Structure prediction request, 157 residues.
Amino acid sequence: MKKIVIYSSQTSNTKKLAEGAAAVLACGMLPVTEVGEIDHYDFLAVGFWFKGGQPDPSIQEFLPKLVGKKVFFFASHGAATDSDHARNGMNQAIELAAGAEIIGSFHCPGEVPEKVQAAVREKNPKAPWLLNAPDAAGHPNAQDIDHLQTTLLAAMK
Ligand SMILES: Cc1cc2nc3c(=O)[nH]c(=O)nc-3n(C[C@H](O)[C@H](O)[C@H](O)COP(=O)(O)O)c2cc1C
Prediction:
């Protein structure tokens, strides 16, 4: 089975998850901006970060291309892991990849730079994830990456 990890990442949190996924899958990884033809891949682990409560725009554009593919999603966000905000964002990705076989997903907090938090704090209405953003500091950490790898391997069985 030909596998690849594809990801979008602005501040490298999701890239760290992508590296963890590629290591355990023993396959290559590519930023979504450099992906060409995906016909020859059977399995794609696809990672993204949250922007405005949704998968970031570059991955949103890519998701409809996954028709007929076996896919595992992973993501990082400022929100708490166990929040409706995080679940909804992941569900949006699943919906946008209609026609793909989604075998599993994983998401965890990713550190939000203080500058970004300060800018978001100025906005009204208040972003629902802002309250939990300080707790994302230091994530993804080794435990998050380990959790991703375990979840991914279990989904592939
Ligand atoms: C412009 C911007 C918008 C963001 N919007 C959200 C959001 O709506 N929900 C959320 O949970 N996190 C949000 N975040 C936090 C990022 O999703 C989080 O820090 C993520 O780990 C970044 O991943 P990356 O380092 O791979 O780019 C936002 C961050 C930025 C910079």
About this structure: The CA atoms of residues 79 and 132 lie 5 Å apart. Helices lie at 13-25, 57-62, 84-96, 114-121, 142-156. Residues 9-15, 49-53, 76-79, 85, 110-112, 116, 127, 129 surround flavin mononucleotide (CB under 6 Å). The chain has one domain: 3-156.
